[in-house]
Amino acid sequence: MLVFEKEIQQTLNHQRYFIKPQGKRLPVSALTAGVLKQIPKSKLATVTVYDDPERTVEVAVIVPEKKEKKQAAEPKAEKHAGAHIKKDAKSKDAERSNLTAYVNPYTGQVVDLFNRRQTFLYSVEMFHRYLLGGKNSVGDWVISISTLFFLVILITGVILWWPKTKAIMKQRVKIKWGGSGKRLTHDLHIVTGFYTSIFLIIISSSGLIMTFKWANSTLFFLTGSKYIAKEDVRAPLSAYQPGVAAISPEAAINALGDKVTEAENYTIRYPRDTAAVYTFNVLKKGSIELATDTYYIDQYSGKLAGFALYADKSLGQRIRGVIKPIHTGSIYGWPTQVLAFMITLVSLIFPVTGVMMWFNRTNKKKKKKPVRRREAVAIQPVATI
User: Fold this and answer.
1) Does the CA dihedral 103-109-111-112 come out positive or negative?
2) Comparing C-alpha atoms, which of 284, 264, 270, 206 is closest to residue 238?
3) 82 band by pLDDT with thresholds 50, 70 and 90
4) Does the pLDDT value for residue 78 go beyond 50?
5) Strand partners, 97
6) What is the rounded CA–CA span in Å between residue 189 and residue 348?
């Protein structure tokens, strides 16, 4: 389900994502002003603009939580993580949007308000990642350790499968559909395992990289790249000019020129304070998902303060940047999505056939009765007359 989440959402809620073009687009500042007016006390987080003239503009905002929810959550956070962790979590959540407004770029109308955390597919993702628990919960560890075991089983399975001769190789790449039930179970487990193992190793490995720090560090070690944590990546600062007003987002967009106007989409993160910059994450046309270039614009002068191109990053950073689409199969669109769907669907065969093979083996041992040794009978010599 998660492989096709975007397609499912766009199909079931077509009017949220697509509109009919109606002349000239409104400025980004006009679109965000309308959203902030409609959602009182909200704080602007990011704005995502698509090159497709039929796509709505996505304005992500941060809406303060109700006091009751905060008070209910605080004791729990202190109990499980400690006060210092709770403060860190709050600072991170402050940067995370919890509501997205989909705006018609031609009329400024807010087409729909969407909170992904309240959807069924978000619950599916939380079940997939944490068994409906949270980060560092029991469910998180169960999923993580299970994935690690699964990876070990895949690698050792390939080693055990590897044939010694070409004749055996031919047998192990074909399913004998006319064989007995036990032979069919064996072939379904062994043959499908061979064809899907490499893809499942990639899927499970990418999941571990997103979960464990040691797996993430291993990726950088194997690629010969230097590991740089997210918190160590610092954006440049604007040259503060007292009495000078910050430039508009339209001016920042114009400063980048063709880099944004000819992109498939770009996301603007507004300056958080007087020293920050406009941050643009730009996805070039034809690029794989999340392989974005980052540009920083001084909020006073409108000049380019710095940039980080995806192509200039180390191999480890490039792979880590797209590890989520690798895991979900969305990295190259429909072809890899269908492949990921089929691979994960077929993988359901393994636990079933594996248990059946184990049951057949143990049942066979029970049926075998121990062979009793006959006692030697002493033969007495017969007296002859």
Assistant:
1) positive
2) 270
3) very low
4) no
5) none
6) 10
CB 143 within 8 A of CB 95: no
30 and 114 Cβ atoms separated by less than 8 Å: no
Q: Is 65 helix (H, G, I), strand (E, B) or coil?
A: coil
Strand ranges in the chain using DSSP code E only, listed in sequence order: 43-50, 57-62, 99-103, 110-114, 265-269, 277-283, 293-298, 304-308
Strand partners, 100: 60, 114
Q: What is the mean pLDDT of residues 229-237?
A: 84
Q: Are 349 and 11 in contact (CB under 8 A)?
A: no
Distance CA 89, CA 381 (A): 96
> Between β-strands 99-103 and 110-114, what pairing exists: parallel, antiparallel or unpaired?
antiparallel
Its pTM stands at 0.81
118 C-beta neighbours (distance < 10 Å), count: 10
Q: State how far the Cα of 42 lies from the Cα of 34, in Å rounded to an integer.
A: 12
Q: How far is CA 8 from CA 80, 148, 291, in A?
A: 36, 30, 23
Quote the CA–CA distance of 89 and 24 in Å, as a whole number.
42
CA–CA dist 155, 191 (Å, integer): 15
